[in-house]
Amino acid sequence: MTKGKGADVVLECGGVDTLAKSFKCVAFGGQISCVGYVSGKQTSSQMNTIVLALSRNVTLKGIVCGPKDRFEEVLQLYQETEVHPVIDRTFEFLEAKEALLYLAKGGHIGKVVVKIT
């Protein structure tokens, strides 16, 4: 899929055990986004993420997800007040590279969506 280059962006959701695999498949200079608190927990299989990130010139980014009840509260607010995000443009999954280039230009107003189904 990446012709041996590795993925530019990896969404890491599985915790420390899959984080090691994410480092193996991310491209040099790529980014690993750890979604939720699970990815940051330490287990008996310690790994030195700083050394791994520096050796591959990888940006390691945390994306904190709030508790389920907070999500449900926000979802209810959206439903009751009909608040909707502004969508500037929608791309098909196969157009993801074009979507990133579009974002990089910075001319968008609102969200840029890439459909995954």
TrEMBL record:
It comes from the Eukaryota. It comes from Trichoderma gamsii. InterPro entries: NAD(P)-bd_dom_sf, Zinc_ADH-like. This is Alcohol dehydrogenase-like C-terminal domain-containing protein. PANTHER family: OXIDOREDUCTASE (EUROFUNG), PTHR45033. Pfam families: ADH_zinc_N_2. SUPFAM superfamilies: NAD(P)-binding Rossmann-fold domains.
